[in-house]
Model the fold of this input.
Amino acid sequence: MHEAVASPTPSIHAAGISAPAPRRRDLVLLVIGGALPVASGRLVLALTPLPLHESINVPSQVGVSVEAAVWIGALLLSYRRAPKQPFWKLILAFLWTDQIWLLGYIPTSLTWTLGEAFSAVHDAVSAHLLIAYPTGWLVGRFDRRLVGFVYVFVLATSLIGHAVWQPEWVGVDCVGFCPNNLLLISRNDTLERLVDLGSTAFIPFLAVGVIAAVVRHWRAATPAARRVLWPVLIATPLVATLTTLWYLALDFGWLVVTDVLAGQLLLFVDFIIPTGVIAGMLRSSLHRSSVADLAVELGGGVPIGSLRASLARTLRDPTLEIAFPSVAGGGLVDPAGHPFSLPSPGTGRVVARLEREGELLGVLVHDAVISDEDPGLVEAVTSVARLALENERLAAQVRAQLEEVRASRQRIVEAGDAERRRVERDLHDGAQQRLVALAMRLEQARGASADAQDLIDATTTELGAAIAEVRQLARGLHPPILTEAGLRAAVESLAERTPIPVEVEGSGERHAATVEATAYFVVAEALTNIARHANASHATVSIRTSGDDLAVEIRDDGRGGADPAGGSGLSGLRDRVAAIGGSLVVHSPEGGGTSVLATIPLAADGG
Done:
């Protein structure tokens, strides 16, 4: 126990954890990448010779600059938190596409056309950002199809509309420049109007789809995930509603509505998402202070079994689970010593592996949002709780051993009782009945001298059958060949009686009677299972000495899927081997055959 405490600091390995800290140069480039489109847009407005819309004034531009600064802050924090997640890329795309419309103020037909035709892409990026928040990944077929449809819808309606539309500049002062629509193929005012009305009428349905996607995320989210999703839950209905009103107002000429929306209202809504991202990051910083509180709590001593509650409280994840490697190998146990299964992929759970020099010490299973919100928090918590986790691991393994010992003792007693009942029944129903019949026939022979020879012959036959049956019973309890010729010969005898080809490998050296008997019954049970359940065409028995142990391995090429707890006799074998200090490991993947490896101490004497 003291050795484990003094060992090197463990490491954490899990998806989304321990991302390398971004370099300062990367952060500077991100600031430039986020600020460049905003600064360029302000420069265009300052230098353009074209008249500006009345909504473009000093207060509005100050608001736009402040909004951009908040978005850039969210961009940096998102990148620092999870550089491998694409959410920061969506923020960057949001900042760039937000300025596309300003290309219309550059007095060339090309820039004007690009600004007119592709400014609506910003709305598609906004929808993408809302649905993919907070990781940037689209989860599920519904989200992917919806976002893909939004992009296609925006681009298709814009390109089709501009292919048949030519602006008229009658009575407009173009300051020496009236741009042409370079996407025009053939002017068709009727088709252009139909495309315009159709797209406007469909926008509310897209808005409802985006809201539905975000609400689905919220309803499926854990409490930890909902702490992160609240900015989007608030912003999405507002953004979707106001964007829909904006397009309706533009299409139907509701000037009062467009004036209000073009003012500060849309700007205020655009503040919600980046503010929520920043608030989440600040909340993560506050969570880091709880790590110090955890250190103080653990320093005062935590009762064995209560560590999970302390870690769950620090991580703010009530679903947190802890598990440790089983001493018997091949599985995990919870702090109470009970078997533990890892969650399946796609359940929103992350498995953080706690290792020391390549050895698995334990796992923490937590909500995936913990890693998304603050990838380094789990590592910080486990580093602080290292000593307590070591103690908890040892305690859990001791509990698991005690549970296994109790269960093993009970199974051994039950198996012994069942075996005695079987032998008693077989002797009573078989050999005993034959011997009783033999006694009756001999009694008859005394008074029947004429037919005595025939009666004695029949009696002799019955006696031979009774003797053979008794011998068969004795062989099942302990085969004579094992005592006379050793383990190798006894296993070869088993192989000959097995209905599939069995190859026996290994030397014929002798070992203690207890060792050979245990190994023999492991092979006998394994071959019986292969013949009955494995659907195998071939099996191999390997007998070898490994250090101070005898290793016996039985392999087959069958269908696999053997369960030691499923009543196949493997649990009884494990008890028999463990009773003399050995171990038995079963590896049986579905479709991959079965391997049963028994390791038996050569010094075992049955005591």
Notes: The domain at 481-607 is CATH 3.30.565.10 (Heat Shock Protein 90). Residues 1-19 have pLDDT under 50 and may be disordered.
